[in-house]
């Protein structure tokens, strides 16, 4: 894949300016610059006003690789996670604020700089941490048998759970008619909070929203992914020991139809065929056609794979058997295989029907490729599954749908003809899809007239159906908390920010000194961002702590950039400079001896980007246009990159040198900007100290009357 940005795409946001002039590593100044600032200002405004001009024109150009960094804060790339965690992802299906790594000292004034990226894979054996779980995380934990009991609030809109390991968390519950069934099937103890009438729920929701509690999970989630003791992947940990697990659920009638799945038109079209097989098998067998046995639904978590599978069963009017593959895998060898046998025995007796296996990668990984113990069990389980599928005669009427977001790790035996030989991709929805999903999830909610789904959809690139559902629910809760009768666009806007960056810790006590440090640090990021010719406009700068971050600078990448997932070399170089801007500002203002650990994450992000550029994107002359780093993800998607190196020591030296050069260059660019615009840095930091938040427009206006110089390189 070409890693360069489609020029159409990249030039859109800033107008038709083309920056292809040969590198001039110095600052220049001309009237052109003020024009560019004006354009950036306009871009900023249009982002803030949610209207993305020319979008339609470009929409068709690219999409799919959909990336979700909506806004992004301070710095950039997520930590590598234990690259060998055998069992990847049920990533949290939200756009996450991503802390990088705990800095050496937790007293670091900036704590964590955040990147808001798409969900990233995380070892599925773990539970989300933190005191508030997303509904989808909760469901997946329930299905894995990790939730012991739940206590609903009186009106059922929230619950508190106790996990098998004793952890407690709260969950906001959307209107899900299946929830009780799912809980019951999975042996979860259910109760309803009583007594504290009225007040109780309010206090409960208040807790959820209380800045210090909520969303800590977002951050710890990622800490967890950074290695830790790295348990045995999807295998049940010791916690599961002795716990009785449900094997599968059987739903005679799902009651879900394709109409309940908004967007996903292509997937529905492809699955319509499966519905038809189930309804009229004879039509096909009469012609000698082999009815497919298995179909793989591939896509990121929360995109509605389970919903689609249920809809297929609903449309065909057949029973729906479901299980999460991770449930098959037990500590005891042979248990998984026997569960598979049970499941299919039952299914065959009820044919025609749908068997849905969620997270098939938990058992379906390439055999012999796992680590540590437990392989036997997994292999036996997958062998049993293959045997079952091979055993179906052509028209047994059992069609197996399986979901995964890691088709790449699946054992090729699973994908052979006669098994999961069909794949249906369920992608993150595009704008139009998001509008439809928002409509579905605002049914039954009182919305103010000012709510415009189109605008919300534009502000939520990369959001999945589950994310949008969560957004609408959070907005509803905010509205209730504000004693409103209707959900207005403000609640949605605030809910969006909370989801992306975590709630603001408005009442956190921050010393004047720390405030000043953070203000300069963030101003540094913003300043470099604004002065880089090809970079996203600054949307907002804040020094109100959020989550573990001392402050945040939000950038607003254009929808096209987000949806195309393509980044030009200069964009990445600029991004590194922007990430370094925080430290550079500290250095310039407080002196080299007084810089803090607050930038450690920025550095990690920067080195990761640089390494990717050299190892994977072919951006290094010395390494050339090859990918040498082993399999790796897109750092902006929050994906992990393999730490496994398949190159020699000599090559490693070259890589290191190239990485260093890229970083050094970014650093000196940032430094040059900072020193030439120290006046604006002061102004912005001052403004931040006074107001705590400065929006993009106000920030850009500092340039218009000032004498800003655009850095051209
Ligand atoms: N296209 C959609 N239309 C309407 N609702 C959706 C859509 N996609 C997701 N949702 C909502 O998000 C919830 C979670 O989706 P679902 O569990 O089907 O996702 P998934 O892809 O199976 O995720 P996972 O891989 O985590 O199991 C659904 O219950 C549904 O309410
Ligand atoms: Zn920073």
Automatic annotation (TrEMBL):
SMART domains: AAA (SM00382). CDD domains: RecA-like_FtsH. GO terms for biological process: photosynthesis, light reaction; proteolysis; PSII associated light-harvesting complex II catabolic process. The chain crosses the membrane at residues 201-222. Keywords: ATP-binding, Chloroplast, Hydrolase, Membrane, Metal-binding, Metalloprotease, Nucleotide-binding, Plastid, Protease, Transit peptide, Transmembrane, Transmembrane helix, Zinc. GO terms for cellular component: chloroplast thylakoid membrane. SUPFAM superfamilies: FtsH protease domain-like, P-loop containing nucleoside triphosphate hydrolases. Residues 83-112 are annotated as: Disordered. The keyword Transmembrane helix applies. InterPro entries: AAA+_ATPase (IPR003593), AAA_lid_3 (IPR041569), ATPase_AAA_core (IPR003959), ATPase_AAA_CS (IPR003960), FtsH (IPR005936), P-loop_NTPase (IPR027417), Peptidase_M41 (IPR000642), Peptidase_M41-like (IPR037219). The keyword Nucleotide-binding applies. Its main location: plastid. Pfam families: AAA (PF00004), AAA_lid_3 (PF17862), Peptidase_M41 (PF01434). Residues 291-430 form the AAA+ ATPase domain. Signal peptide: none annotated. NCBIfam families: FtsH_fam. This is AAA+ ATPase domain-containing protein. It comes from Eucalyptus grandis (Flooded gum). The lineage of its organism: Eukaryota, Viridiplantae, Streptophyta, Embryophyta, Tracheophyta.
């Amino acid at each position: 894949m070409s890693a360069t940005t489609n020029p159409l795409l990249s030039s859109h946001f800033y107008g038709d300016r083309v920056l292809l002039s040969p590198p001039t590593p110095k600052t220049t100044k001309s009237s052109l610059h003020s024009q560019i600032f004006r354009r950036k200002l306009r871009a900023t405004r249009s982002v803030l006003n949610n209207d993305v001009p020319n979008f339609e024109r470009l929409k068709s150009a690219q999409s799919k690789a959909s990336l979700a960094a909506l806004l992004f804060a301070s710095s950039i790339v997520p930590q590598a996670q234990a690259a060998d965690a055998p069992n990847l992802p049920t990533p949290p299906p939200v756009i996450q604020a991503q802390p990088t790594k705990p800095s050496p000292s937790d007293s670091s004034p900036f704590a964590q700089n955040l990147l808001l990226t798409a969900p990233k894979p995380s070892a599925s054996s773990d539970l989300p941490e933190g005191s508030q779980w997303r509904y989808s995380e909760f469901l997946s934990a329930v299905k894995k048998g990790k939730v012991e009991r739940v206590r609903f609030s009186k009106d059922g809109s929230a619950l508190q759970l106790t996990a098998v390991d004793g952890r407690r968390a709260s969950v906001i519950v959307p209107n899900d008619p299946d929830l009780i069934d799912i809980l019951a099937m999975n042996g979860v103890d259910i109760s309803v909070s009583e007594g504290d009438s009225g007040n109780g729920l309010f206090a409960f929701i208040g807790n959820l929203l209380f800045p210090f509690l909520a969303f800590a999970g977002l951050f710890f989630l990622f800490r967890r992914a950074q290695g830790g003791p790295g348990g045995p992947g999807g295998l049940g940990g010791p916690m599961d020991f002795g716990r009785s697990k449900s094997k599968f659920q059987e739903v005679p009638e799902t009651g879900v139809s394709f109409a309940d799945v908004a967007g996903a038109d292509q997937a529905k079209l492809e699955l319509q065929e499966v519905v038809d097989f189930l309804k009229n098998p004879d039509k096909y067998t009469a012609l000698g056609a082999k009815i497919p046995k298995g179909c793989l639904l591939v896509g990121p978590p929360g995109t509605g794979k389970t919903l689609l599978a249920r809809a297929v069963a609903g449309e065909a009017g057949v029973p729906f058997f479901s299980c999460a593959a991770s449930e098959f895998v037990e500590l005891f060898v042979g248990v998984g295989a026997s569960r598979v046998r049970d499941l299919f025995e039952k299914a065959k007796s009820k044919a025609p029907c749908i068997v849905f296996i969620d997270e098939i990668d938990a058992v379906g990984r390439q055999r012999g490729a796992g680590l540590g113990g437990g392989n036997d069990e997994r292999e036996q389980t997958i062998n049993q599954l293959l045997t079952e599928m091979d055993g179906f005669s052509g028209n047994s009427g059992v069609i197996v749908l399986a979901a995964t977001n890691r088709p790449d790790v699946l054992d090729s035996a699973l994908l052979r003809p006669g098994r999961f030989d069909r794949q249906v991709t369920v992608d993150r929805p595009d704008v139009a899809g998001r509008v439809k999903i928002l409509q579905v999830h605002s049914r039954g909610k009182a919305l103010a007239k000012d709510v415009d789904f189109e605008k919300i959809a534009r502000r939520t690139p990369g959001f999945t159906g589950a994310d949008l559902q969560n957004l609408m629910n959070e907005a509803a809760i905010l509205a209730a908390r504000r004693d409103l009768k209707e959900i207005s666009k403000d609640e949605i806007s605030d809910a969006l920010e909370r989801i992306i960056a975590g709630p603001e810790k408005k009442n956190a006590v921050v010393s004047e000194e720390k405030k000043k440090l953070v203000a300069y640090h963030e101003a540094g990021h913003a300043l470099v961002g604004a002065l880089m010719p090809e970079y996203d406009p600054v949307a907002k700068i804040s020094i109100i702590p959020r989550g573990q971050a001392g402050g945040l600078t939000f950038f607003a990448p254009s929808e096209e950039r987000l949806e195309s997932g393509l980044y030009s070399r200069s964009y990445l170089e600029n991004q590194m400079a922007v990430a370094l801007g925080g430290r550079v500002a500290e250095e310039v203002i407080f002196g080299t001896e007084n810089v803090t650990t607050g930038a450690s994450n920025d550095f990690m992000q920067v080195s990761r980007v640089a390494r990717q550029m050299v190892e994977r994107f072919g951006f290094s002359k010395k390494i050339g246009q090859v990918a040498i780093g082993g399999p790796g993800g897109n750092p902006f998607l929050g994906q992990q990159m393999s730490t496994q190196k398949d190159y020699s020591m000599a090559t490693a030296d070259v890589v290191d040198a190239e990485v260093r050069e890229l970083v050094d260059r970014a650093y000196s660019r940032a430094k040059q900007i900072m020193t030439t615009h120290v006046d604006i840095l002061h102004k912005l930091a001052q403004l931040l100290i006074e107001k705590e938040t400065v929006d993009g427009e106000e920030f850009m206006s500092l340039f218009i009357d000032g004498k800003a110089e655009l850095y051209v390189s």
